[in-house]
Sequence to fold (368 residues):
Amino acid sequence: MAEKHEVFLFCLSDEPVNPIDLDRVKEVCKDVRLLRTNKLLIYLRLAFNFLSNKPFQVRYFTSAAAKRQFQTYFNQVKPDQVFCQLARMAEYVRSLRNVQKVIDYQDAFSKGLERRLHHTSWVKRFVIRLEYKRLLKYEADIFDDFDQHFIISAQDAELIGHPHRSRIRILPNGVDVEHYRPEPVAKTIDLLFTGNMQYEPNVNCILYLVKEVLPLLKEEFGHIQLVAAGKDPARELYRLNARNLHLTGWVEDLRKYYRQSRIFVAPMQIGIGMQNKILEAMSMGMPVITSTLANNAIGAKHGKEIWIADTPAKVAEAISYLLTNTELALQLGQNARELMLRRYSWAEQNHQLNRYLEQPEKASALIP
Fold:
């Protein structure tokens, strides 16, 4: 955005922000207004939110004091457009008048919550079900408060419960194809999965691989190893005490793991949107095994650019096939890289975004 526009950023954080990171953001913004939020006040808002009808994630990020500060900042800046990132920030923007308002839903978060209902404890299930119902309604309620709407995939757009959801523009995620690029190194890791290891869809996928997939490979590949690279592994993953699972914790540069791994496995069973981990692996030229659920947003061709497997037996079969057919695995990775260059580079996505923002009445939705 900053290449063609003056960007004023208003943002919240419930944790201290590294000054180096803040300086990097300031390099591309005309101005940055960072508001630190108080955890105690957040918890009080969440407690009282049981008496409200607002989604908990909206109440987490919304306070009367923060809204007043935003309004003051808005009056100072007098922007031509306000770009609202995620529905949880919509309360700051909904009531604004005489300005173009844009919302990026990113994903259909309500559907993600619904998919988690059957994969969590009964204690959590009550809160998740309540949040799902509230968020489903809220995603539709805020629609008419904005002039333009973005979302990450066509399947996510269909899950926004508004009669005019066809107006939502499809703008997929991108990947830095120069940063994530193939480099020939020795392959010392059999299988790789990356991500935030506290995020429930990621935890669920690791459990699925360790409990249901890897046992099917024990006879053929007795020493096969799965590396799960990412921060804050959940206690549930440590309790597995699995000899064929290595949890790295925080990694400064994930590219070293992408380079050293033979296959990227992410057969996601729950979750929404577009998996950045898959885009990164494909951009690195890796053969990727995933589920139909995860590939729907990407639209890669099975057997040419990606390998789709929807049952433990099929995932195990795919792993075996690609480990023993190195030429096919190499070609799959090369085709994946070409797809990222052709369709999912950040340069392409940002070009589309700027085109939409500059000519909202003329732009047509980007169908990947």
